[in-house]
Amino acid sequence: MRGITKRWLINTFGIILVILFVIVIAFAFVIQNSYYSGIFQVLNGRSSELANIFSDSSEFIQTARVYVENFPDKELMELMVINEDGQVIITSTGFAPDNDQTMPDYQSALSSEEHYADWHGNLSSGENVMALTRVMYDKEDKQVGAIRYVVSLEEADRKIFISIAGVCLIGLLVLFLIFVSSTYFLRSIVRPVQEISATAKKIAQGDFDARINKFYDDEIGDLCDTINYMAGELGTADKMKNDFISSVSHELRTPLTAIKGWAETVQLDGCRDIETVQKGIGIIIKEAERLSGIVEEVLDFSRIQQDRMVLIMDKIDILAELDESIYMQRDRANSEHKHIVYEEPEILPAVLGDRNRLRQVFINIIDNALKYSDADGVVNVNVEQVDNNIVITIADNGCGIPAEHMPKIKQKFYKANQTVRGSGIGLAVADEIVRLHKGTLDIDSVENVGTTVTITIPVITPESEQQPPAEQGA
Where among 305, 340, 362 does a domain terminate? Predict the structure, then answer.
């Protein structure tokens, strides 16, 4: 036995055992006191009759002899007649009196104001008895003798023992029932905990398909559900991580292949075909920039994960950054036969932000809108001021996002469409950048209808305008 079972036996079962032991001791004391008090009351009641029986104390011996002969409880107790010298002269047993036997109750009665005393103890034979002696006096207050009652306590002790044994038996039965029920209860806890421990080890070793059987619909059951849910989430996260590694590997391989291929072509062709060289160098530069963008995106995500994303905050014109982002994507849109529709507002308030990071967000969202739009697709960009916020809406009429993917669309590594290029961390990075600007990034999408991304950035207030430009970190 170890663990929960051992602690329970030491703490709970041990306490119950001590409590039952105290109860048995208390019961033994109470029942013994009850039996002995009853016997004493009988003896005291008998001795109280003597005042009427021995009213004429001058004939004490004759009256005592008649009293002994007619005593009705001879079978229950022994009656002794003691003379004025303290010698036992008559007994109800018919045997010769034993004057060598000590009589502590008689000695106590001689000095008692009530003229009687009781004693409880063992005779020289070892028998446990209770005795009561009442001393008799004549009219001149002179001792004429005494009557002593002696009751054996052997029968009372036997009944007391039987009662205590019965209580002990009941206590043992209670302990047994508690042990059986508690063992069943402990198994109902220990077995699931053992299975939880074994399954948790499997999960820790990478087996995210491991599940715990739910035994009961209680706190243990809730724990099983939670661990099963955790395993599912870890499995999903592990799959997304593997997909991310695969996607990033593919994303890195594509520009590297193009760079290597065109570099080899330029090397073999030399400088004979200037047009080919220029085209190759142009593609190498473009793919190198793409490669740099992927690496930077991964580094940004790493900074976010480690809370090391730092923004260089300054008062900026958000329209200028949006215009540049659209301009950078327009050539690509034209080459893919897609359209970006944007009507620039006349003027908007300045915002406090990092111009490079906000441009990164705009490029990422517009890139996604073009990526998931078919040929002749339209991406609408709208900017307006709503209260103290600049609201930028980027909407496309592309494939949209299925409803089951919407709750996880901004999670790291998550890609709703695995067939389209991308690492799956762009939206997570964009969402974190907007959050650091004290803004929000919301996505609304309907499958086969399109997606709308709404970015909200607060404008500069008089309070914030008084503050100098600063760095802001995650």
Answer: 305
